[in-house]
Structure formats: structure tokens, C-alpha cells
Amino acid sequence: MADSSNKMTKRKAELLVQSALLREKLAVEALSLFQMPDIVSKGLGFLSGFNKIKKNPLVVAPVILTLLALRPRRIISWAVSATVLFKTWRRFKPVLSFVLGFLARRKK
């Protein structure tokens, strides 16, 4: 009788540990599910912007007319120039920040 009681006590302890682990796992999964709607709501908010444009196309008309007036070639050349400028800045930023930091320390 004592032997079966001992086994049942051990089994109960094992089940309590397993239950605690499963509850913790469930809590983590529930937390991740609560965070997912934030991403979904951002996506829906982005799509609602397109719905606003559909309802009021006059908002987009000035942008389209400006792009047509500037000619696509000019826009493409501006985009290429901006890309080259950005890449150049990214490449030389560490050097420039080092030189400017050196000059600032030298003035003090």
C-alpha cells in the first residue's frame, strides 16, 4: 500500500511539473499571439491608405501631374544621383566622423 502511495506521489509531482511547463509554454504562445495583431493592424492601416486614395483620387492627381511634367528621364537621373550620393556618404561617413572628432578634440 505504501509503495503504491509513493508511486502516486511521484507521479503527481511529475504531472505538476509537466503542467507548470505546459502553462508556461502556453503563456509564451499567447503572448506572441497578442503581439501579432499589432503587425496585422499596421498592415491593415497601410491598406486603408489605398482605400482613401480610391475614394479621393484628386489627392494623387497633383503628384502624377508633377511626375509627368518633370519627365521620367529626369526623375530617373535624380534617383541615380541620390543613390550615388547616399552610397558615397555611407562609405566616407566613418572617415569624416573620425576627422571631425579629431578636430573637435584638438580645439579643446
TrEMBL record:
Protein name as catalogued: YqjK-like protein
Species the sequence originates in: Oxalobacter formigenes OXCC13
Domain of life: Bacteria
